[in-house]
Amino acid sequence: MSVSGLHAIAADFIFDGARTQRNSAILINNSRIAAVAPRDELSTSIDVFEAPKGAWLAPGFIDVQVNGGGDALFNADPTPKCLAKIVAAHRRFGTTALLPTLITDTDEIMMAALSAVETILPEEPSILGIHLEGPFLSPEKPGVHRRDLIRRPEPHHLQMLASFRKGVLLVTLAPEVAPAGFIAELVAAGAKVSLGHSMATYEQTRAAMAEGLTGFTHLFNAMPPLSARKPGPIAAALESPNAYYGMIVDGQHVAPATLGLGIRGAGHPMLVTDAMPPVGGSRQEFMLQGEQITVRNGRCVTPDGVLAGSSLDMATAVENCVRLLGLPLERALRFASTEPADFLGVGHFLGRLAPGYRADIVALDPNDVSVVATWVAGKEI
After folding, report:
1. Is 16 designated active site?
2. Which residue ranges form the domains of the chain, and what is each CATH number?
3. How far apart are CA 57 and CA 375, in angstroms?
4. 294 in helix, strand or coil?
5. pLDDT exceeds 60 at position 3
6. What pLDDT does residue 165 have?
7. Which residue is catalytic, options 12, 274, 313, 342?
8. For 349-373, how does the pLDDT look when each residue is reduced to its tens digit (9 = 90+)?
9. Which of 295, 273, 278 lies closest to 71, judged by CA?
10. Mean pLDDT score, 26-35
């Protein structure tokens, strides 16, 4: 529906990304937040959406790793139409902004994906850019990525990636396969760089961070484990206050006790879904680059039992932080909004409920973190 002029959303609790206010309202002017004020200070002439009793308003969720949703898969159909399906599926679960994620594929598919995102960006506020998870990965830690498509970056790849200027570009790579200076060149071109599917040592990881790498893709998964004499990338992530690491809190990818190490680290945990087509879809099976993937007991797996993304949505990830990890709801909400916004460099207009910010808002039942309503750029979805 279209929105014009001033309107407001009122609730018993509003978490603005830093603190929780009671009996307040968010005043919205077109697509932006004009103010967050006590409910009883609203003018009687303003249209007000009253959230259900006990509901919370929070910044809309931001997911930096979304492979698919609504029975659509970005690798299989790198088009604006596919992206629209994925966005619609995830909005049901409070995700108001995301990075469609392309796993390791051919140069032709990569170029098609970049073009699709550039095409849809002007008309779809929920698309922030693109996440290329590969192809510059370690063949020793492929996960579900095709080994025959994993490769080292060449000069034309840098040219391809540097030409993407209309949104956020996040590149997941294994630092040990990148030539010297490649990460620095990507960062200089405006990209965010994340370590993933890597066998990097601690020293190689620190060197990559010195070049500008700031992210860690699904921390603990597809990387060497933390050990006594080989701290590896996990130690580098946990000790750095400038690191942002995605965590898949589905009870499947990483044990809760291990995730607890991540939330106690010096860096910035972020919730990611690594979502596949079943999220918000109707089918429990899909094809991924010629291989059938099936959802079994909440796990997306190959016939050999290899994890292939997840069937997790962001609202459930927030709930799992509270239920499995014992976190306060406010902190879990930050992991789903404020932290990823800051990581992507959009924290000046997303990830918080404050004047001047885009009115991306989710209304939640705090008991089970189910989504009551969602707004994107001031429009109720």
Report:
1. no
2. 6-58+352-380 (2.30.40.10), 61-344 (3.20.20.140)
3. 10
4. strand
5. no
6. 87
7. 274
8. 999 999 999 999 999 999 999 999 9
9. 278
10. 97
